[in-house]
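lol forgot to send this yesterday, sorry. struct tokens for the thing we talked abt
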């Protein structure tokens, strides 16, 4: 018993030393492998990006990369580079449903957004915007209230709108045709942020209205004017579904015919 009990611990000790040696060898090997492969991994992941931008990149690599290419550098004949367009352009394109583009056409149109849940849409547009912003910079829509206040806002907004926007979008912001199948769309569905983003990014044939062309305050005045135009539903005439003069004429005609019929019955009853 005494000899066995003396040998067993020595055997264990040797085994333990063996384990330690193997462990160290494994660590060195792992370290070497890490050193060999780690730089490549890091270069691809781009340590510069914030977490939000990385989340945006993941969405981008799923839904946009086929047309806009790796790192948003663009793909010939499919989609332009997005370097430098800023989060404003991304927000405008994604929240108005224009992007991701479904098919090639003369002009990307407003359509039901890719993400139908409004919160998910807002979140994903922001993450995508953050990614494009961190890749190449560019204009951004400011946070907070985008309406102007003060007595002269509507007058000034209206003036700025007529000078800068109505040539394409019509005086009512209802939109109008441009050349070769293109058009300036109605602003009926546009939110404050989308109008601001459209001015900052100048989609398609629309010019860019940078902050030196229209100051942020002037942009707010224009937005207030446009949104007021929509809320002020019937600036003239009766509100007969706003289908136009035909409905109004029809209404007058129907009322008139009914009146004549009643008059005839009344006269017939008298005689
Ligand atoms: C089927 C191809 C296609 C897909 C998918 C697509 N795009 Fe586009 N994108 C285009 C084309 C073509 C244009 C340029 C034409 C236009 O602006 O109407 C464009 C324009 C844009 C612009 C405007 C660039 C500028 O100059 O201001 C942005 C921003 C944009 N895309 C973002 C996205 C994002 C974000 C996604 C993914 C959610 C996406 N796109 C998916 C084809 C695509
Ligand atoms: C030279 C013509 C032109 C002028 C001037 C112009 N736009 Fe546009 N606008 C366009 C075109 C074209 C589009 C459509 C772009 C697209 O679908 O990608 C557009 C789109 C828009 C949209 C998006 C509408 C939507 O909800 O789908 C808004 C908002 C808008 N413009 C606001 C303005 C404002 C505000 C001004 C004045 C400060 C202005 N535009 C001046 C041509 C113009």
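and heres what i got for the seq, position by position
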């Amino acid at each position: 018993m005494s000899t066995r009990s003396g040998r067993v611990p020595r055997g264990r000790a040797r085994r333990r030393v063996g384990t330690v040696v193997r462990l160290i060898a494994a660590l060195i090997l792992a370290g070497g492998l890490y050193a060999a492969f780690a730089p490549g991994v890091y270069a691809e992941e781009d340590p510069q990006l914030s977490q939000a931008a990385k989340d945006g990149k993941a969405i981008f690599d799923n839904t946009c990369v086929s047309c806009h290419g790796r790192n948003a550098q663009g793909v010939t004949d499919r989609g332009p580079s997005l370097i430098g367009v800023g989060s404003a352009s991304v927000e405008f394109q994604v929240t108005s449903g224009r992007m991701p583009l479904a098919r090639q056409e003369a002009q990307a149109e407003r359509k039901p957004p890719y993400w139908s849940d409004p919160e998910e849409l807002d979140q994903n547009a922001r993450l995508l915007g953050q990614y494009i912003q961190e890749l190449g910079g560019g204009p951004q829509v400011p946070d907070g209230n985008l309406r102007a206040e003060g007595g002269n806002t509507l007058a000034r907004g209206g003036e700025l709108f007529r000078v800068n926007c109505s040539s394409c979008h019509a005086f009512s912001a209802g939109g109008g045709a441009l050349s070769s199948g293109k058009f300036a769309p109605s602003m009926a569905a546009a939110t404050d942020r989308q109008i601001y983003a459209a001015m900052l990014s100048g989609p398609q044939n629309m010019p860019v209205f940078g902050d030196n062309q229209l100051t942020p305050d002037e942009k707010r005045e224009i937005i207030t004017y446009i949104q007021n135009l929509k809320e002020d539903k019937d600036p003239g005439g009766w509100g007969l579904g706003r289908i136009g003069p035909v409905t109004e004429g029809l209404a007058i005609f129907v009322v008139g015919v009914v009146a004549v019929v009643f008059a005839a019955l009344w006269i017939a009853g008298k005689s």
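The mean pLDDT is 85. anyway ping me if u want another try
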